[in-house]
Queue: 2 jobs
Job 1
Amino acid sequence: MKKLHAKGFTLTEVVLAIGVVGVLVVVFMAMFIPARKTVAAALTIREADRIVSTLSTELSKLRNTERAEASARQSSSSKYISSFDKAFYWMKNTAKPETTILIYSYRADLGKPVRKDGTPSPYLEGDGSVPGKNTIVFTGCCLASNKERYEDFQALTSPVFAVRMTQLVVQRSKTAGYMYKLANEPGVIYNPYSSGKEIAEPSQYVYSSERSSGINLPWGAEVLYQAEFFQLPHSEPERLKGMRWSQLKDPVFSRNMAFRR
């Protein structure tokens, strides 16, 4: 009776097989990791653009609850006669985290009427959300002190971002001419050509015919600023009370922006 001998792989063949597999894994990782980083970067840029667009849009509109009376000749800190005035006061609110602008996405309820300010109510029913049917994801933008919007933070679908706005003012230079630099404090608005001359309310931010070195320097049509966006470590606006900007560490990203009359 013949004995059957199972033929196996030699040590050399096993080592070669492992080597081939190792090379394939290295090649795959070399191709996959950069591709993954590219996708992540693209998503980050897209998300940043959405956040910036939300801020710009909010500062350019007046909601029903924000409009001053038709007879009003001047805006207050909460009722505005123009979107420029709203942006002016909202920028001043970014001096401190507890009063700053918050941007976030939340699940909105399509089955409820919109609120007085025109924004959709949050979906707070727990299970049963059907995107596109009874809910949508809506990007909200409000002041951290606006308690009427606090329900939104119970239906979040993304992190919450806080905005710090710092004016870009003109710096005179003998060699480089006129350059823009950041003001010393966030939320403070100056005459951009008169260092240290703070503007208290938007009606004072008007055109001027002042001249310097023979150059006409009109201003008053727009406010240039740097917007920095900080991701909050929590989702409760109440926890911003008493907080300093330094406690939120570094911004996730920043953009140079403007609002105009």
Job 2
Amino acid sequence: MEKLTGKMTMLVLAALSLVACGKTGKTDTASTERVERVQTQKLEKREISRDIEISTVLEGYDTQNVAPSLTGIIEHIYVEVGSRVKAGDMLVRMDQNQYKTTKLAFGNLAIEMQRVEALRESGSISEQTYDQTKLSYDQTKESLDFLEVNTYVKAPFEGVIASKNYEDGELYSGQAILVLTQLDVLKAHVNIPETYFPLVKQGMKVMLQSDIYPGETFPGTIEIVYPTIDPTTHTFQVKLRIPNASERLRPGMYVRTTLSLGRVETIVVPYQAVLKLQGANDRYVFLNDGGKAKRVPVQLGQRFDDQIEILSDEIKDGDELVVGGQARLVGGVKLQVVEGSTAEPVSQTK
């Protein structure tokens, strides 16, 4: 009996020892925490010249497809590609049969209208007869005006013929017969990051550059600032008006647009300090917030070689930006600031 009691005592002591060891192991695990070694720099605002350079493609200020509202045979096209025309010049003559028939009918109605007006004044005709004749006259005149515009197609503005899609005698089926475009004035649409929306105003001057004319600039003016922001690209659009009396610039040319918005104070950081969210276009940085990593979303502004402007309401002068080792960080992780190259994460015992 004494031997049995001794064995049971030993088993109980062994079990208590194992429990104590287990608790010690958990304590040891909980007493260590991951610490990241990083490099940081103090942020301070600097003055920069706010110049935005954006690429765009030129367009004729006015471009119109010459496409009559009547289908039928094209009797004659008066111009060729490259022809210069003035407003009111004849471009295309469509089949005239319908127009001539309607014109003859309108002539007869005009005579009839004069007759019923005379009878109406003498009281020899009813108002109903007069109204019916007047309605027929007005409808035929409207049809004649429509047929005249679409049978004898004229240039609505001065420009050059950029495209010709038919020849004399072909059946017109709806595709534009000609394309007329303006050359002495051009336009362009550019997309600008939304952060600059308060700074861009109608009437501001811009400068354009083309690789075709190295070292030269061409002036333009912001004609329209569109009032909405694209939620996908976070940009807004402006329309430029570009005088082109010399016609050295042409529709379709690729140009760079420089927009000067004056000098401003802003925060500029090393480009590699800004991280990009995988699978999205969202950008962010890490700050040293009381010894812990704080993730802050930012928008990118102007770039200066290996430096980039960042915009965020959460960043201010004096903040400590992580510029080395940031790729390993997550929000809330403890930081150890070091000088020189960064090292691998270390374990710190509490």
